[in-house]
Amino acid sequence: MDITDLRIISTVGALITFVGIWVWAWLGRHKKDFEEAARLPLEGDEE
After folding, report:
1. Are 24 and 30 in contact (CB under 8 A)?
2. N or C end of the chain, less CB within 10 A?
């Protein structure tokens, strides 16, 4: 196993991780949580 094999393995691993996170984020069951988090900056101290 040389450096090229390690680069290929790390690239494929990073791609699989990226696609996994992307799919997780776009699942419908997380929509409510993400909408709630998106409104956080708009909720300020109203003093």
Report:
1. yes
2. C
